[in-house]
């Protein structure tokens, strides 16, 4: 059956001009079929072996190739199922992989990795809210002038993001039941349940109750009067939806690509940690690198949507990935906390709390009008640069 009940069936999806066999469909070029398999093959061949310079370079190249393949397959699936379900496909899939990577590295790293979940989730929020949003606003604004999106979709996302980040990353630094920036068992359970509940409600609102709030404004150019809004049509957005066979194949290859991404990242993690220690950098840098890797597919998809004048899709991806990072990671970490031989550090230091507050206040102001230009994007990119700089030089 079709991935979306309202989508065209196989019979109608194949127009006379469309390929009659999914292997010849331009939605699945040969490289994106081969990369996931090759990445998994390299991962299996290198697993457990010491990483020299040559092998490390090969695995790094395979990692980024797997990320690019994941971007492509996610866009194919998203085009088939339509908005806003398409933007959820990549957000949820990548976050599940992120959770698996965090938990495995925390178990392997011991007490020295007790703040990895906090560092990675905070980095994911900052990358999504400042890096991805800022980049999309700048690139989209340079190409189309004024960008349109729905405030009804961005406002609840920002409200949920602020509440979830406050409960999970800020309050642990101020509670009194346990010493330090940690939660007690019951407090951690409450934060996990609250985060999961808020994320579940957000997904319900986005996909069922108020789905129209998260659809691109007016299709191609929204209601913009700027003539440049129609100057760069998005061919991918208006192309014939892929067939069921192509969509299901891309979904399977997306999963393989994401498994390859997390496996290769885990294989490269010891070299990463050794490099961070050798350079004398703070341990939070490792969390930033992990978040950057796992958010690369969403970043690529969001940028493509912004260039196609579908800023709402970009914001769905950016803010949705931040929400998914907290809403799925914190509950899993809370559920597994009894098996960790150390207390999980969740509370942010004062400097990071200030950065989070600045981000939420700025996002409320820049995304509160339904229209944006490169100016709003520049503000977010400056905050993102400050986050990266202060992570390295706290």
From TrEMBL:
Segments forming domain Sodium/calcium exchanger membrane region: 54-207, 250-392
Major place of residence: membrane
Cell location: Membrane
Cellular compartments per GO CC: plasma membrane
Any Pfam family hit: Na_Ca_ex
Molecular function GO labels: potassium:proton antiporter activity; sodium:proton antiporter activity
Protein known as: Ca2+:H+ antiporter
Record's keyword terms, sorted: Membrane, Transmembrane, Transmembrane helix
């Amino acid at each position: 059956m079709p991935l979306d009940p309202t989508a065209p069936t196989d019979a109608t999806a194949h127009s006379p001009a469309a390929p009659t066999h999914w292997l010849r469909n331009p939605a699945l070029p040969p490289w994106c079929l081969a990369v996931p398999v090759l990445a998994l093959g390299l991962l299996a061949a290198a697993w457990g072996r010491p990483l020299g310079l040559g092998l490390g370079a090969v695995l790094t190249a395979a990692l980024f190739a797997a990320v690019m393949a994941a971007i492509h397959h996610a866009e194919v699936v998203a085009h088939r199922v339509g908005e806003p379900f398409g933007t959820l496909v990549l957000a949820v899939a990548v976050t599940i992989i992120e959770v698996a990577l965090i938990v495995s590295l925390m178990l392997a790293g011991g007490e020295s990795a007790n703040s990895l979940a906090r560092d990675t989730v905070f980095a994911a929020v900052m990358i999504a809210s400042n890096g991805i949003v800022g980049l999309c606003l700048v690139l989209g604004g340079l190409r189309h002038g004024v960008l349109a999106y729905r405030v009804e979709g961005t406002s609840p996302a920002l409200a949920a993001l602020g509440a979830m980040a406050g409960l999970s990353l800020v309050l642990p630094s101020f509670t009194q039941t346990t010493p330090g920036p940690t939660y007690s068992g019951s407090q951690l359970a409450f934060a996990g349940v609250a985060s999961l509940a808020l994320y579940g409600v957000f997904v319900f609102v986005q996909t069922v109750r108020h789905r129209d709030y998260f659809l691109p404004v007016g299709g191609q150019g929204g209601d913009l009067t700027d003539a440049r809004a129609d100057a760069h049509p998005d061919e991918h957005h208006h192309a014939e939806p892929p067939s069921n066979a192509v969509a299901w194949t891309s979904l399977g290859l997306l999963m393989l690509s994401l498994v390859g991404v997390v496996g290769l990242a885990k294989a490269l993690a010891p070299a990463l940690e050794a490099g961070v220690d050798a350079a004398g950098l703070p341990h939070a840098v490792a969390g930033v690198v992990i978040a950057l890797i796992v958010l690369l597919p969403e970043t690529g998809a969001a940028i493509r949507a912004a260039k196609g004048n579908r800023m709402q899709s970009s914001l769905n991806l950016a803010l949705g990935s931040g929400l998914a990072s907290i809403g799925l990671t914190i509950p899993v970490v809370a559920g597994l906390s009894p098996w960790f031989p150390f207390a999980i550090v969740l509370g942010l230091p004062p400097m990071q709390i200030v950065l989070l507050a600045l981000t939420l206040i700025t996002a409320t102001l820049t995304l509160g009008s339904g229209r944006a230009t490169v100016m709003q994007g520049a503000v977010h990119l400056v905050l993102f640069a400050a986050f990266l700089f202060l992570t390295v030089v706290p």
